[in-house]
Amino acid sequence: MKIPNASPSGIIVNFETRCSRYFHPRVLEYVLRNEALSLARNNVSTSGLNVKSQCLKDKLMQLSSSILSCASCLQSSTVARIFHAFSKLEFSQKELYEELSEHFDFESANAKTLSIVLKSFANHPESLKHVKDGFLMNICNNIVATISTAVSYDLTIYATSIPKLIYQKECSKIMDELPNKKFYAKRLISSLRAVYENVLERVTEIIDADQNSFKSFELALVLESIYYMGYCNISVKKALIDNFKSIISSSPNAISETSKLLSLIPSPTYVKENISSRQLQYEVTRLDKNLAEWIILYLKPHLSDLTCSELVFIASACNRLRLWSPDDFAIKFAISCHELLDEKLKPHTLSQLLCYFLRRYETSVNREVSYQKNQSDLGSLLSLSRVSQLCANIGEALYKHAQNEFSDEEIKIIDKIVKIASLARAKRSFTSLRLYTN
C-alpha cells in the first residue's frame, strides 16, 4: 500500500505497512477509503460480483486488518465510504464492523454521511448483525437532528433506504436475529417509520419553497418509496405527485420513470372499520387512479418506443386498477403489442396483455350496445365496432401465440387467468369470441 508524500505530523502506531514512519493521519484515511472504493468499483459490474476471486478475498482481508488497526481514528465520512464500498462487495467482518460502529463520530456526521451509512445497511443487511447495539438507532436520531441540512439527494436516499430496512426479507430475517429482538427490532422499526415521516415533511417543505429543487428521478424514487411504505398522508402525497407531473417532461428518462411508477400503484383496498378510515382510503385510491390515468395519457405518444416490460406495466395497471383507456390509446397500444408476437413472451407477460384486451373488448361491446339503444349516429357506432374488432383480434393472436409457444401447464395458468377476467366482466372469453360486428 503506497502512501502519498505528505508533511510529517506525528507517529501513527499499530498500523502494519511498509510506508514511512511519519505521515499525516488524514493521508492514511484517504488511502484506506480509496482502496476500499477501488476494490468495489473494479470487482462489481452489471454481470454480478466477482466473489469467487481468491485475490479479492485476500485484498479484503488485508484491507480490513489495516482499517481495524486505526478504526478509532477514522472520521465519520471515511467510515461511511468504507461501509458503502463493503456493502457493494457484500463483505462484512464482525470485529471490523463492531470497532467502526463503536468509534463512529456522530457529532461530526453530516446528512450526506448518514445517508451513505443508511444506504449501505439497506443494500447489505447482513452487516447489521455485526454493528454495536443501538448503532442504527443512533443513526435514526441523528438523521432527525440534521434533517434541516439535508439536500434533495440525501432525502431521496433516506426515503428509498428505509422501506428496504423495514420490508426487505433479508432485513426482516436479520432483525429477528438481533439481541432482544422482540423489543429492539420493534423499537427500531418504529424509529425508522418516524424518520420516514420527518423525511417526507422535509421534502414537501423544500418543494413548497422551490418546485425545481428535486430532480424528476429523485421525486420518482420518493414516490416509489411511498407505495412501498403504504403511506397515506393525502396532502404530502398530492404535493409530491403534482410536482412530479410538472417536472417530468424535462427528464431524459421520463418514459422509464413514469412506467416504473405505474407498476407500483397498488390495487384499491377498502377497509370497513369506520367512516373516516373508509373516506381516507377512498381519497388515496382516487389519487392513485388519477396518477395512473395521467401516466397512461402521458405515455400515449410514446407507445411505439416502449419496451415489452413497459407495455406490460401499462396492461397490468389497467387490469389492477380497472382503468379506462381511450379508444385512440387502445388502438396504438394494440399495434405496439402486436409487434411483440415476434418475440419470446413469458406466460405472465402474455396473460397481462391478454386480460387487458379482454377487458377492453368487453367495454367496447357494452358501449356499442348502449349506442344502439340510444340510436346514436352510425359513424360513432362503426368507430366503436372497429375498436372491439381490433381488441378481439389481438386477443386471439396472443392466445394462439401461447398455444404455440407454451407448455400445457403454462396454458392452463393463462386459461385460469382469462376465465377469472372474463367472469369479472361480461362472462365471455377469448376462446369463444363471436363478434356480432362481423
| Shape type | elongated
SS element count, helices: 18
Q: Which residues form runs of ≥5 with pLDDT under 50? A: 1-16, 425-438
- Please describe the biggest sheet, giving its number of strands, its sense, and whether it closes into a barrel: 2 strands, antiparallel
Give me the Rg, rounded: 28 Å
The N- and C-terminal alpha carbons lie at a distance of: 79 Å
Oligomer: single chain
- Taken in chain order, the helices and strands follow as HEEHHHHHHHHHHHHHHHHH
Proportion in helices: 55-70%
- Give the domain tally: 4
**What is the SS-derived class?**
mainly alpha
Number of E-type strands: 2
Strand adjacency order, main sheet: 1-2
Summed over residues and divided by their number, the pLDDT gives a mean of 83
Beta percentage is: under 5%
Summary of the model, kept short:
With 438 residues, the chain is mainly alpha-helical. It contains 18 helices and two strands. A two-stranded antiparallel sheet has the order 1-2.
